[in-house]
Please model this.
Amino acid sequence: MYNKRISPDAFVSRLKDGMSIMFGGFMGCGTPERIVGLLLDSGVRDLTLIGNDSALPNTGVGVLVANRRVKRLIASHIGTNPLTGQQMINGELDVELVPQGTLAERIRCGGAGLGGVLTQTGVGTVVGEGKTHLTFDGVEYLVERPLRADMAIVKARAADEAGNLVYDKTARNFNPLVAMAADWVIAEVDELLPLGSLDPEAVITPGVMISALMLTEES
Amino acid sequence: MDVKERIACRVAQELKQGDVVNLGIGLPTLVPNYLPSDVTITLQSENGLLGMGPLQGQPVPNLTNAGGKPCGTLPGAAFFDSAMSFSIIRGGHVDATVLGGLQVDQHGSLANWMVPGKMVPGMGGAMDLVSGAKKVVVAMEHCTRDGGSKVLKTCTLPLTARSKVNTLITEYAVFKFKEGKMLLTEYAPGLSVEAVRAVTEAEFEVSPDCHEMDLSLLTR
Model:
């Protein structure tokens, strides 16, 4: 009924220079490392990456920054990867810094069919510059617009064949959000289970969000 | 005694039994060491954990704190995604947040996320925490390394949030921000109101019950 499992070659054939990719992960925890390796080996470049942070130079998406594959980065934090800051200052990498909670909601909006979100976060700071401000009941909000991408790369502990996902501890973070907000979504999972193996009550990301599945390690 | 430990010891007195608390990276993580024995708090970590505990034994894969370091969980802990994490933060479900600062001004504004041209780590979750937590406590050293005051009339660095700080605690003083006023409520043992004024650029009022800081738990 479902045939979401994809080979590394089939995944790589979907990559295009200049594409936008959303990623899960928080300082590399919860980033699909096998998929990042395939991105790196494929030679794809001029990427726009959207996710929480640029990890360390040798973890998560940090390796894509270190190998100069990234043209634009939308993230909340770049401090743990000095190469991101260097490339930003040199003018090689365009970085948009977004408050973490706002980034999460912008991605959620992108996946939820919403036109944006109102938040007090960033009012009176550079984050609010140039953005629409609205006041309701005496409280001033910024209008923050949705984010979407061509592709999202997700890490989960396990999937069933339908693509239903369960995560592992703090490796969940942005993964369920980016899984909603891209045109094509691949999940890298430690375990791929037959239909009926996951308790429907325990599923975090419904399989409808997931286009393709890949195992972290082939047996 | 180390300056950071002194600040952390005083910050701990701001937290009440049962509070849900988000602690920033660095100095704020020292605060739980100084909680009175009758106060238990629940730690929220913005990467998706409520009920964070200390690392016990070997690191567990996929279990880290907001600094990316291995941590533990306590009974009753919960994991969630980043949208839920910041719903907890912005939605007023966090009783207190303790953050470091580069500058705080007399309007209760905080700058702690970038120094233009020098250091641009990003704001991470700080802007949401300062906007959404019920109580915002800034814990920082009073002066820069070259002796300039970090407690200013107006912040000169890009703001994290405007007029959201409730309490500022340094090694020299405790200030509260109420109804647009900055109030000195405590000074460190051995100091005086005048001594605090001498190292503070901000204009502040002195609370009628201003008194010496209690650091008795430091010796524990």
